[in-house]
Structure formats: C-alpha cells, structure tokens
Design brief:
By secondary structure, the protein is α+β, with helices and mostly antiparallel strands. The protein has one domain. Helices cover 24% and strands 31% of the residues. The chain is built from 4 helices and 6 strands; from the N terminus they run ββαββααβαβ. The strands form 2 sheets. It has a 4-stranded mixed β-sheet with strand order 5-1-2-6. The model has no long low-confidence stretch (mean pLDDT 90).
C-alpha cells in the first residue's frame, strides 16, 4: 500500500487558495482517482465535490464526457496538475483536486502511528 497526499486548488474571482486536505492510504494512482471521483466526505465539513464522474462516463455525453479523461488525470496526478483543466468559469469558484505520492510500500503500523499524531489518514 502507498501513502498519498490529497491536495486542492481553488480559483475564484477575488482570491484563490491551495492546500492539503489529508492523506490517503491505498494501492495505486488509479485507486486515488476512483476515491476522489466518488466525491468522498473527508470530515463533517468537507466533501470533494467534482465533475469527474461526468467527464469519464460516455453515458453523460451531454454533461461533459471527455474521451481519455480518466487516463489523463491519472497521468497528471489530478486535475490541479493538468494543463488542460478548465478554469475559465470561476464566477462561483472552481476547485481542482490532485495527489502526490508520499511513500510507497508503507506499513499499516506506520499509518497507525501517523494517525495517532492527529494527522487525517483515510484507508481506501
């Protein structure tokens, strides 16, 4: 299993922000993609709302399906690192998510120690 840092970048007309949302303990970049795509709730105040399920599913052709979206996002490690990501419609703000591999082949014991230190680690 690997440890990934989950990141976000928010664009808005008057400001923008970037930060770390938490850490994910999972098997691969594809699993990170699937987790973010599922729009999970990180805590009681924050869910990862995104449109990935519309962009990678041909059934949603009218809502923005994009051929090869999933593969491109996995290759870039998230929409926030994709040079082709759309940031043009920022009237209400646009949030992009991404990830960074922190450590490969990390043990469950190490993750437990990280959690005991108060760091948000989610297993998926």
């Amino acid at each position: 299993m690997n440890l990934y840092e989950i990141r976000m970048r928010h664009y808005a007309p008057k400001d923008s922000k970037e930060g770390v949302l938490g850490y994910l303990f999972t098997e691969s970049d594809e699993k990170v993609y699937e987790w973010i795509r599922s729009e999970p709730e990180i805590n009681e105040c924050k869910s990862l709302y995104n449109s990935w399920k519309y962009h990678d599913n041909p059934e949603y052709e009218d809502e923005g399906y994009k051929e090869g979206f999933k593969e491109r996002i996995i290759e870039c490690n998230g929409e926030m690192y994709d040079d082709e990501a759309d940031v043009s419609d920022t009237y209400y703000g646009v949030t992009h998510y991404g990830w960074e591999l922190i450590k490969e082949n990390i043990s469950e014991e190490a993750v437990s120690t990280i959690k005991e230190c108060g760091i948000n680690v989610i297993k998926y």
